[in-house]
Amino acid sequence: MTATIERPTRGPGLSARARRRAELTAADRVIRAVLLVAAMVPTAVLVFLAYQMVRQALPAIRFSGGHFFTSRQFNLGNQYGTPEVKNGEAALPKAQFGILAMLFGTLASSVIALVIALPVSVGGAILLV
After folding, report:
1. Which of 30, 60, 67, 72 has its CA 20 to 30 A from that of 12?
2. CA distances from 70 to 50, 84, 99, 111, 123 (A)
3. Residue 59 exposed, middle or buried by CB count within 10 Å (0-12, 13-18, 19+)
4. Alpha-helix runs per DSSP H in 65-99
5. 90 φ, ψ to 5°?
6. 96 pairs with which residues across the strands?
7. What is the mean pLDDT of residues 85-109?
8. Sign of the C-alpha dihedral, residues 27, 31, 34, 40?
9. According to the model, what pLDDT value does residue 4 have?
């Protein structure tokens, strides 16, 4: 004779969430875990990419100081000169690292893409309905 242990699915001591969790089968739990991993992987990849970009840009940000985000000049410098040290970071002579123009270009192209894509997508959705 084997004894089976049944989990209570009703009762005053269980919340609705606990009752739903008790009703899940093993296959449901496996699927839930797989979907959780599938949802977390893209987020982890994006966080990793953001970390890598900041880590790689940190020497240029330190070298340029506040001008990194406010200057439009981006010049790698004279490749045949002796590197100069500024704010604890070494770079080629006459190097300037400013990304304002690149930031503006990125934001402008994103706005243009949204201006084009939004009406097209809404029109397509209306056409399908």
Report:
1. 30
2. 21, 22, 7, 21, 39
3. middle
4. 67-70
5. -95, 140
6. 75
7. 90
8. negative
9. 61
DSSP β-ladder status, 84-86 and 89-91: antiparallel
Position 112 scores a pLDDT of 97
The one-letter amino acid at 54: V
Residue for token digits 């056409």? 127
Tokens 């049944």 correspond to what residue?
A: 6
Of 93, 98, 91, 102, nearest to 74 (Cα)? 98
Check: CB of residue 36 under 8 Å from CB of residue 52.
no
CB of 103 within 8 A of CB of 74?
no
> Quick check: 83 and 59 in contact, CB under 8 A?
no
Amino acid symbol at 90: A
User: In whole angstroms, what is the distance from residue 28 CA to residue 35 CA?
Assistant: 10
Reported pTM? 0.60
Distances (CA, A) of 124 to 108, 111, 112, 114: 24, 20, 19, 15
